[in-house]
């Protein structure tokens, strides 16, 4: 009997123990389920809130970009700062805000903002370009140049080759504005060496080379355009003008004539100077005693030039003598014109090429010195002066 009682007591204890374990398990599972549900609800609410913040940030940033594009940087600043309050540290928004600050005239604040961004990404091309432009506004040319160069060799999103060329040309224009044409020329030539075969770009580079005082390099680029587009009027006019200035009157005449012949009413009006250059080059080619001419024709032109120069000398000498009673400034020329060599006959000149050159040198000296003493000549004397200037430029 006692054994049976003990067995019953043991069974009751085991049953009670199982019930307690089951109850604890159910309680744990219930608490776990509640925790999971609360976690999921919290996660949903957090993600919903984060998504809403992200949506608001996108909305405000879009407003900022729109305001910046439409020329309202002050409004863009407010919108972009609001966007950053929803998504702090968003780099694209920070870049836009720094740009807006600069356009709104907050130069120092913009500079400091970009400088903070630069410290985290010193090789970013856009940030360096922005700092270069701000340094230029702050009249700090050396810092601007340093940032421009860092931008050229920095990293760019998208077409880095195009952006680097654009920055290099912007640097070249900056150098030209600060009277450093030699360094600007180097930058332009580097850009030209890496440039594609694009006529519009080549014309831009050629124009910049002219501004940098490098007409020969500019002519090379204009010739490159004409090799692809022989009737490109802009290139013809520019090349013709440069040839004219360099004394290459035959090339100038050919190119200017082509440009004017291809001109249509729809084109922009030609500058009067271009028409004058064409007319002058035409007359110069008819007046110039080129060594490529037959001897008789060359001598005839030399005699004509000698007559023109002698009349110019006589008029200038009379003007100086009437004004001061002295002809000392022209004494050396007077001696030369009084010598037998200044009145050689046609036959003598025909048989003596050395005297032909000496006579033309007297003509050029006369036109050059009378221009200095009596003022610029007109008519054919002005054309002879152009030939004299070219002759002087060609002398070693």
Spans of 5+ residues with little confidence (pLDDT < 50)? none
The fraction of residues assigned to DSSP E strands is under 5%
* Overall SS class: mainly alpha
Q: Summarize model confidence as the mean pLDDT.
A: 85
Number of strands: 0
Question: Features of this protein?
Answer:
single chain, 396 residues, mainly alpha, Serine Threonine Protein Phosphatase 5, Tetratricopeptide repeat, 18 helices, rod-shaped
Give a description of the structure.
The protein has 396 residues and is mainly α. It has 3 domains: 168 residues, Tetratricopeptide repeat domain (Serine Threonine Protein Phosphatase 5, Tetratricopeptide repeat, Alpha Horseshoe); 49 residues, no CATH class; 100 residues. It contains 18 helices and no strands. Helix 1 runs antiparallel to helix 2, helix 3 packs antiparallel against helix 4 and helix 7 runs antiparallel to helix 8. It is rod-shaped and about 160 Å long. The model has no long low-confidence stretch (mean pLDDT 85).
Short recap of the structure:
The chain has 396 residues and is mainly α. The protein has helices at 2-69, 73-86, 91-103, 107-120, 125-137, 141-152, 160-177, 181-193, 199-211, 215-228, 233-245, 249-261, 272-287, 295-324, 331-338, 346-350, 353-374, 379-394.
Give the topology.
Elements: H1 2-69, H2 73-86, H3 91-103, H4 107-120, H5 125-137, H6 141-152, H7 160-177, H8 181-193, H9 199-211, H10 215-228, H11 233-245, H12 249-261, H13 272-287, H14 295-324, H15 331-338, H16 346-350, H17 353-374, H18 379-394
């Amino acid at each position: 009997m006692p054994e049976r009682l003990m067995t019953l007591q043991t069974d009751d204890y085991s049953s009670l123990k199982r019930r307690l374990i089951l109850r604890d398990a159910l309680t744990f599972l219930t608490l776990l389920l509640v925790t999971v549900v609360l976690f999921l609800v919290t996660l949903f609410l957090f993600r919903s809130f984060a998504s809403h913040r992200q949506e608001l940030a996108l909305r405000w940033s879009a407003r900022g970009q729109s305001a910046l594009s439409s020329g309202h940087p002050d409004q863009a600043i407010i919108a972009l700062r609001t966007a950053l309050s929803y998504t702090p540290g968003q780099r694209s928004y920070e870049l836009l805000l720094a740009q807006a600050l600069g356009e709104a005239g907050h130069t120092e604040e913009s500079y400091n903002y970009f400088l903070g961004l630069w410290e985290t990404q010193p090789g970013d091309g856009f940030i360096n370009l922005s700092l270069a432009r701000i340094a230029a506004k702050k009249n700090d040319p050396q810092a601007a140049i340093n940032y421009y160069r860092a931008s050229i060799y920095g990293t760019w999103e998208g077409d880095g080759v195009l952006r680097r060329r654009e920055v290099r040309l912007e640097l070249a224009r900056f150098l030209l504005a600060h009277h450093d044409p030699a360094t600007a020329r180097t930058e332009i030539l580097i850009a030209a060496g890496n440039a594609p075969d694009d006529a519009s770009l080549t014309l831009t580079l050629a124009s910049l080379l002219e501004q940098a005082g490098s007409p020969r390099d500019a002519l090379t680029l204009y010739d490159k355009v004409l090799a692809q587009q022989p009737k490109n009027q802009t290139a013809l006019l520019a090349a013709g003008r440069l040839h004219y200035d360099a004394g290459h009157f035959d090339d100038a005449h050919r190119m200017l004539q082509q440009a004017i012949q291809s001109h249509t009413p729809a084109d922009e009006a030609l500058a009067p100077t271009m028409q004058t250059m064409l007319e002058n080059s035409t007359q110069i080619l008819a007046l110039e005693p080129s060594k490529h001419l037959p001897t008789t024709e060359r001598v005839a032109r030399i005699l004509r030039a000698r007559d023109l120069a002698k009349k110019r000398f006589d008029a200038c000498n009379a003007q100086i003598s009437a004004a001061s009673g002295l002809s000392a400034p022209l004494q050396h020329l007077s001696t030369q014109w009084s010598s037998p060599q200044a009145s050689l006959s046609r036959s003598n000149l025909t048989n003596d090429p050395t005297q032909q050159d000496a006579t033309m040198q007297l003509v050029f000296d006369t036109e050059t010195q009378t221009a200095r003493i009596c003022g610029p000549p007109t008519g054919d004397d002005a054309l002879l002066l152009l030939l004299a200037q070219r002759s002087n430029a060609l002398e070693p």
